[in-house]
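writing this on my phone so excuse typos. first protein, seq and then structure
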Amino acid sequence: MSPLHLSFYSAFTLSSLGLAFHRTHLVSALLCLESMMLSVYITLSIWPVENQAASSTLMPMLMLTFSACEAGTGLAMLVATTRTHGSDQLHNLNLLQC
């Protein structure tokens, strides 16, 4: 395994661990999701170059599009949550009350 692959795998693993264990604020959860998407995007961008495959160059653009949509939806949820509950702490949210 090359050091480049190791760094992308470790970035994805650390961001997923951050999402799993540090769920106090919605902003930190959104940042962990964005770092996961960024590591997947960079991995998908480098993979066709390493394999000399020109057929899979569309996949990083689709991933970037979905990542932008996810970021916009997450920020809209952050604003709506802050307006209704007064903070972005995740322990204040209860799905049964919605």
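second protein below, same order as before
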Amino acid sequence: MAVINAQVSELIRSLRKKGWTTSAIAKHLATTGIRASLRTIQRHCLCAVVEKKKGRKPRKLTSQVMEIIDSILRTDDELSERKVKELLQSRHNITIGLHSVRKAVRTLGWNFGKPR
């Protein structure tokens, strides 16, 4: 095996950033006269990993949804969270999880549960 110099290492990284596979890079290097193992190429490719930005999904529990939940509870404060969720889906076409509805109700100050 040959020693990989900085120029070849940079070539490996640039090929990896272009989307080349490890075996394709090894074949390309072999045609230029450089013999490198797959593990060596993988080691040099670790520095060239392109980080993908993870796009966050927009929050479903916006201030508008909070206002809608608050207005639903003002009309009938005896509604359960499950019923509030169903009303959001049927009347306002908002799909939201039950846990999010419970969190919103708690944040708005409405108290569900048994009186103590």
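The radius of gyration is 29 Å. thats all i got for now
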